[in-house]
């Protein structure tokens, strides 16, 4: 999908965690290895990650934060309103971009096509070029290892970094705890 990044989010029993690698590529060259592709929104109550260009990320984050403010932080209402606006905007809907947003109650994948996808398991979501590697590892670790949410996200992204040429192992994490 994107030769750009890997973002993985896990909404567990104790924590909501999102992580991303730090690699920025341009064609077949690595431009930067320590980029930050995740952030906290709405006074730290919402976690988000982005796969796509940086300029698009800032534009979409601002747009999404406005919807969070309008809905007083109701993530479900905000993602629906945001998705409608993103889809209706003739320029923005053509962006090759995706977002993951989550809190302790919900986790969603958003796209300019109007997609609002809650993962089937309601707990783990990934986007980006290494997303399938990361989600496979996360599902296996969550099911079979005695690890907390942060460790699952970090180790899964490390595995993706071993397999995907567009993903490195410079992992950054954000979390929301009780």
From TrEMBL:
It catalyses: ATP-dependent cleavage of peptide bonds with broad specificity. It is an enzyme of class 3 (hydrolase). Allosterically activated by HslU binding. Na(+) binds at residues 161, 164, 167. GO terms for molecular function: peptidase activity. GO terms for biological process: proteolysis. The keyword GTP-binding does not apply. Its EC number is 3.4.25.2. The active site is at residue 5. Keywords: Allosteric enzyme, Cytoplasm, Hydrolase, Metal-binding, Protease, Sodium, Threonine protease. It is found in: Cytoplasm. Transmembrane segments: none annotated. HAMAP family: HslV. Protease subunit of a proteasome-like degradation complex believed to be a general protein degrading machinery. Belongs to the peptidase T1B family. HslV subfamily. A double ring-shaped homohexamer of HslV is capped on each side by a ring-shaped HslU homohexamer. The assembly of the HslU/HslV complex is dependent on binding of ATP. This is ATP-dependent protease subunit HslV. It comes from Arcobacter roscoffensis.
